[in-house]
């Protein structure tokens, strides 16, 4: 496995360019960068971020960020595995985090749309609730999963490849669609 070298004096923008999953990893482990109360600026150095958030060992953070891809890999799950859990009747919340207009374009019947109008209700779930997040391609659901892990949820997954993979591997009747960024 190849590691990406980062230094404490690098800006967060430089780190995120080298390690796209770094922000998720920071939030999961240190509760930094995932919400407005723990945000950082792209021009802040990693040293500054650690100091501002009372993280004493910046070298530990560097080592952790260099393994950030492993953190994402642990959270991702294949669509066929999720389908197996559903078919076996496992207790879980399968949550579609796409915007309502996207869900209308290609609904996954097994997944509940995330209720953004009452998003705090999810934080009230038991911290060991099995949460499986789904989005268009697997990126947003990783972000949402990291947010929940950062809030001490212990059983969080993101569907690898999102709805696109779900359609290809589980249910070809889910309509394909494109969205503009």
UniProtKB/TrEMBL annotation:
CDD domains: RHOD. Coiled coil: none annotated. SUPFAM superfamilies: Rhodanese/Cell cycle control phosphatase. One of its GO terms (molecular function) is nucleotidyltransferase activity. SMART domains: RHOD (SM00450). The keyword Hydrolase does not apply. This is Putative adenylyltransferase/sulfurtransferase MoeZ. The keyword Transferase applies. Keywords: Nucleotidyltransferase, Transferase. Pfam families: Rhodanese. It comes from Rohdeia mirabilis.
């Amino acid at each position: 496995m190849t590691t990406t070298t980062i230094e404490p004096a690098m800006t967060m923008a430089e780190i995120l360019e080298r390690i796209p999953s770094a922000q998720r990893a920071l939030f999961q482990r240190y509760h930094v960068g995932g919400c407005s109360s723990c945000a950082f600026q792209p021009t802040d150095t990693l040293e500054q971020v650690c100091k501002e958030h009372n993280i004493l060992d910046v070298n530990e953070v560097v080592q952790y960020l260099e393994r950030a891809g492993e953190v994402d890999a642990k959270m991702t799950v294949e669509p066929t595995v999720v389908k197996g859990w559903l078919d076996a009747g496992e207790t879980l919340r399968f949550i579609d985090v796409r915007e309502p207009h996207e869900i209308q374009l290609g609904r996954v019947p097994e997944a509940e749309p995330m209720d953004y109008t009452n998003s705090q209700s999810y934080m009230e779930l038991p911290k060991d609730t099995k949460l499986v997040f789904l989005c268009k391609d697997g990126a947003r659901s990783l972000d949402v999963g990291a947010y929940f892990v950062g809030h001490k949820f212990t059983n969080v997954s993101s569907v690898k490849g999102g709805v696109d993979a779900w359609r290809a591997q589980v249910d070809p009747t889910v309509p394909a669609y494109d969205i503009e960024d």
